[in-house]
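hi support,

uploading two proteins for the ticket. first:
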Amino acid sequence: MFDWSKIHTVLLDMDGTLLDLHFDNHFWLEHLPKRYAEHAQISQSEAADFLKSRYQQVEGTISWYCLDYWAEQINMPIRELKQEVQHLISLRADAHDFLIALKQSGRKIVLVTNAHPDSLSLKIERTQLDKYFDELISTHQFGATKESQLLWQRLQQHVGFKNEHTLFVDDSISILDSAKTYGIKHLLAIANPDSKQPIREVTDYPAITDYSVLLNSIKSQPFV
């Protein structure tokens, strides 16, 4: 799938790529509508429709990923509400061996997530994901999301990666499109980000459902 000898830096998304996206889908599509319905004294379906319309207005922007924004918009303690269902936060079953293989290979491994720093902290607390990485980055520190070319410019200045020697892995096709536009050479999609949902068909990028298919190549092709 890739010539791993040419890959020096690996940039990895978090939600849906290393962590099961079920937590996030459940929170934003089920738990928050339920709790908002109680708060606003409306039906859960009305709450879901209201929140969905608000999501669509800011989707892909820094506001969409910002817990402070949503706490202000709907006057609810988003951080605390996330903690109510934090037991659903889990590492993908195939991620540990993949991350260990990358770490042992000596490549630079950087987490790049659009998640708000508070979301990142909660997930690190639950999964100890930080132990696998050279650096953890929330795009909020750059004021732009992975959907934006500005993010890639600022990220490259910060990390110092070379496009031709970098692999970026994400479950979002629109974000992979953004990375492709910026010139990241090696791109990989995750076709099964949510363990409770069917596998998606991905045609625009190489895609996998299990990291184990990469292990032999990572171990047998040291970068040069």
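and the second one:
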Amino acid sequence: MDRPLKETVYSPDSELLSFGRLLRSMLSDLLNSRELAWRLMVRNISAQYRQSLLGYAWAFLPPLFTTAIWVFLQSQKVFTVADTGMPYPVFVLTGTVLWQTFVEALNAPLQMVNESKAMLSKINFPREALILTGIGQVLFSFTIRVFILIPVYWWFEVPFQAGVLLALIGVLALIALGITIGLLLTPLGMLYQDIGRGLGFGTQALFFLTPIVYPVPQASWAETLVTLNPVTPLLQATRDWLVLGQTGHLDGFFWVCVLTLIFLFAGWILYRIAMPHLISRMSA
């Protein structure tokens, strides 16, 4: 039996005036969007690699290429790094894989909405499906990249630690932080293309302010900038769990997670309130 179309009810009152009703509606739409999100994710992943000669290899070629460049430059003494507590290729590759996961999560909300403009203007469905689709695609890409870490860890004799299982929490925290920032920027990004273009420049600058290819500098102004970067404690803790099985960055990790959850909820509300107005503007 075909599922009935979702009924749209227009009201002059803002959803924010009844927070309980808004919260129930948000949770209901989130649950109801799971099946659609799965179908969209499968479709998007298939389309992404269908006409590619290298196929799924593109998921892990960028971190491998980036790692090779930095390892070569370091080996040629173009720059020096302090003790990383692990082999430098492992340090860079793990950091690059985690960074790419964060960046994909950051771009996912705006990218999914822009790619679905035609569907948004013609079909009424829970908008949360687009966000779940983006999260699913990021997790899928990360899963593929994990397979390049395994032989590298084996080659450099990185032992398996029980604490490595905590790394999944760190990966989810990085994705949540990226989705949060992306959600907050999506309404503005739908109005102005500068936001989408600026994200590319912003992430490139943030790359050098995140301890991906170097440890956190000590006793300098650079240390302050890197430490204030919210990605830093999440990436450091997750990399430590993956390689060492334990981390000393739990305080920063905890507080960034708390702030991420708060702003994630705020971004979700903003997304819900703004989407109907943005869709009507697209349809005009």
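thanks. also noticed: Residues 1-12 have pLDDT under 50 and may be disordered.
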